[in-house]
Specification:
The structure is a homodimer of 551-residue chains. By secondary structure, chain A is α+β, with helices and mostly antiparallel strands. Among the domains of chain A are: 117 residues, Uridine Diphospho-n-acetylenolpyruvylglucosamine Reductase, domain 3, CATH 3.30.465.10; 198 residues, 3-Layer(aba) Sandwich (Vanillyl-alcohol Oxidase, Chain A, domain 3), CATH 3.40.462. Chain A contains 19 helices and 20 strands. The termini of chain A are far apart. Chains A and B meet through β10, β11, α10, β13 and α11 of A and β10, β11, α10, β13 and α11 of B.
């Protein structure tokens, strides 16, 4: 067992080793992930591997430059603009092409492929309110003037939740919520923080760290995404095995809808009717806008410990993780890569030879008070060892932490090289885990094969629960024809396979527009009726994010 | 530290020390709690203490006998009865007086006081379906024939959720769900059990124990209440600090409504839209009937350890529990009595002398694998000791476990002696805990004083969370006038105080009809509109439990 300790003072933000130090205030690249300055080309070893695995594909055509983009003229009338400006101030209403392009969608691979084209869809206006009251006023105004509203903050959706869909309305507003940023109140005794919903992950951690607290929610979108987005999309982070999914951190919220507002969450536990906050968690902006969240926070961990593991195969690794989850031995992070992902990961680090030796690698991280970290680490190690795991020391887990926000940059490089790359994820019970993994992998491979494309499917267990786990798939494929239409067909087959094989359509990316046509198969006709009834009550004219979730 | 171990074989049911061994198949006393054979008179020490504390009150008038009860004639038509009998079988449709009286409400003190009267309200018919399909058919039929439906199973509501309210409908059915009992499927790998919603607590534990599993949900209603009731009322049990509230155990459910059915819950974690199962958790039968639940279960604990504690005062005890909750040191049960409750509890056990010495007693119980129980116990003890606690050994915690389902019997004895007794509970943040406790205690005392009644208010912390805790109040009062109307006035003042002081109206009893007039003050106008919109969609004619939750 190998333990690395980090004292509170050396890492007050809790972002140990995060390599991407771009200030989160800087906007993301409009046509790729993150900070352009941090973009990097594929490692040589990977470039060598790809043609062997995927066949040769032509390099992508050069992407359109920002100034070359052609947008349809804004449909917002001058009267609309003036009325909105009266609420938020003229400087917070923009119909400029750049602002519109920057709010034209999320960061799925289809989004990025569309961003490479010269002609693009965009919202008619970008509006940036600064408070709950301004959001409420804008929504009322939008309903009265028949303007659709797409709530937008970090812009990191990978399921099409941010498409500038006008629906049947006159025009469409991208409602940028980033000005709603800040810590409203911290109750240090109870460990409760009230924060504005447009606060990004790093901003939230900095504000809390100043008081010795941490939220501890680290999805891959962490550096850009906002608290409201985590809530609206039911996010799950890399530390969720220890700190819980984002929805378990939410103790209360304020919501603005076109027809009224809500303040929810009185006590840490209650039996007072259905938990209405849960109706907004996962609602993806179709009922209204989450403007403020009351969140469970904890003291910045005193200590962190890291340990990597290797298992002979995925089945043994998964069984080991299951035992850890069911005994409640408490790692903060635990992940298991399958054989293919383990091989590629080793290749990326220039250890091709090792990749051939097979096996599955896992990482564990423990955070908390020193005494507890030591005992949880020891107990987890004992369980993993008894289940056939062999420790690989602290290095692999530390390396994973250091690189954990960097993966999306690789996708941009692959796309530049003409190689298609996308991710998708699901979850199921432990008993069904391997069957689902096979069904999804098969749907991906055969889907691409039907279009004459070779593909490589990597998978890891990203989150564990006592009763099951999440599977995260990374896909690279050598598509010779139109990448968008091939992927649409493959993805459709994967969604069918998920429904047929007992997987959920998404464990932490959400529904958006990409999964919406399958929603009814997961929640049933009566479930759809419930969602539509709530929407009809709160948003009777249907202006909120038309086409997302409910299709 | 004192540890008592119980091997798996000596207590396969997990019901260690439960003193009430009545088969759960036996119905409860129609006019009191539990099994008539187990009713017991007040301990002498308590009888001596009461007049000193509450003044002398006259003994209650003799309660009406079952055969003396006068009911209004059933309003069910022969055609109604015949149509229902076609679905469930004639023998499962009863308009007999005894059946109707036995389904005429729950077990709150007002319920029990009303049960003592000669003239009583009762449902027009008791219908007992045996399956999801039969429930669905009965609900459709009831909607078509304009019959109200009160879902009824254990009959343990203490908030008026089971009143036979006809509303604007022709007649009212008590829908007894006890025939939907059983284990449908156990996934031993994942730790998931599908169980019918009418299964009682003990039945569920027996069925699971046969496979080495436990649900581990032990509210005071455990011996009679059913899984569906736990879900519909968002129950929390005595082991919830370790095993979680009942709603956290629910992975999925089947629901029958008057206009359709739902099967919810695909994966242990998902981001696919709002969690619709959460809309039925806490819905108290106003949308439909939960017929089946998929529940997280765990292996029967290998070991249990018990330890009692004493703290100089409530504030120090509460601060100690907070540290335990926030460090996540993991007791399965932890409770803290205030000074008054500690004193009465000692008095009950004939230790009046000790009661005078003051202080607050606490109990802790740890369940799980031997190694984990030992380390969690040691860590919790360390935290409690550092926070000023002094161990009182295993005995007090073991005594508490043995007596934990017995308290409601005392209430029946008190009522016989003319002494009013009732409980209520709430929850709030740790920072607000003492202020809320004072506000509620004051509302109770001054409320009774305004009616010339002396009262005694006992309180304990019954459930802990990282951010707050639940407060459970036991009230005894010497009311000279009409107990029902005095209590109604006092309770109204308490509900006002809860809303004004940041407490939830109920942490685990629910809303029913007793808290319904205050619901809007907790969830707001927009929250009420959401609940009404869902109800209008699923139950457009409003037949489901009219008057509960939504008033």
């Amino acid at each position: 067992m190998s333990v690395t300790s980090v004292s509170e003072t050396s890492d007050p933000s809790g972002l140990i080793g995060a390599p991407v130090t771009v200030p989160p205030e800087a906007p993301m690249r409009w046509n790729g992930w993150g900070d352009a300055a941090l973009a990097k080309d594929l490692p040589l070893a990977v470039r060598a591997l790809l043609p062997m695995k995927l066949g040769r594909v032509p390099k992508a055509a050069p992407a359109a430059q920002l100034e070359e983009i052609v947008l349809a003229p804004s449909l917002l009338s001058d009267e609309d603009a003036a009325a909105i400006a009266e609420v938020v101030g003229e400087e917070h209403v923009s119909v400029e092409a750049e602002a519109r392009v920057r709010h034209s969608g999320g960061k799925s691979t289809p989004d990025l492929l569309r961003r490479r084209e010269r002609e693009q869809q965009a919202p008619d206006v970008v509006v940036s309110p600064a408070s709950h009251e301004e959001v409420l006023a804008v929504l009322r105004l939008a309903a009265a003037r028949d303007l659709a509203v797409i709530p937008f903050a970090g812009g990191t959706s990978v399921v099409g939740a941010l498409d500038p869909e006008r629906g049947s309305h006159r025009a469409v507003i991208a409602l940028n919520l980033r000005r709603l940023s800040g810590l409203v109140h911290l109750d240090e005794v109870s460990g409760e923080a009230r924060m504005l919903a447009g606060t990004t992950g790093p901003e939230a951690e900095r504000l809390l760290a100043a008081h010795g607290f941490e939220l501890g929610h680290f999805p891959q979108s962490f550096l850009y995404a906002t608290l409201g987005g985590f809530a609206a999309a039911r996010s799950s982070g890399q530390n969720s095995s220890g700190n819980g999914r984002f929805d378990t951190m939410v103790l209360g919220m304020r919501v603005a809808t076109p027809t009224g507002e809500l303040t929810l969450g009185v006590a840490p536990g209650t039996s007072v009717g259905p938990d209405l906050a849960r109706v907004f968690l996962g609602s993806e902006g179709i009922f209204g806008v989450i403007t403020e969240l009351t969140l469970r926070v904890h003291r910045v961990p005193e200590t962190k410990a890291f340990e990597g593991w290797t298992f002979p195969d995925f089945a043994m690794g998964a069984a080991a993780l299951r035992q850890v989850a069911q005994l409640g031995t408490g790692p903060t992070v635990i992940r298991l890569s399958d054989e293919a992902e383990t091989g590629v990961s080793l290749a990326q680090h220039g250890r091709i030879g090792k990749a051939m030796s097979g096996g599955c690698s896992a990482v564990t991280v423990f955070e908390g008070a020193a005494a507890d970290v030591a005992s949880r680490h020891a107990r987890t190690a004992e369980v993993l060892r008894a289940a056939g795991g062999i420790s690989t020391g602290a290095d692999p887990a530390e390396a994973w932490i250091k690189g954990r926000f960097g993966a999306p940059y690789l996708r941009d490089s692959l796309l530049d090289h003409g190689v298609f790359c996308e991710t998708l994820e699901t979850a199921t019970t432990w008993a069904n885990l391997e069957a689902l993994k096979r069904a999804v992998s098969e749907a991906i491979s055969s889907g691409f094969a039907a279009h004459g494309a070779k593909s490589l499917v990597l998978c890891h267990v990203s989150h564990i629960y006592p009763t099951g786990a999440a599977l995260y798939f990374t896909i690279v494929a050598g598509i010779k024809g139109d990448q968008l239409s091939v992927w649409e067909a493959v993805k459709s087959g994967v969604n069918d396979a998920l429904v047929a094989s007992g997987g959920t359509l998404s464990h932490h990316h959400g529904v958006g527009r990409d999964h919406a046509p399958w929603l009814e198969r997961e929640i049933g006709t009566t479930g759809m009726r419930m969602l539509r009834a709530i929407k009809a009550e709160l948003d009777p004219t249907g202006i909120m994010n038309p086409g997302a979730l409910l299709d």
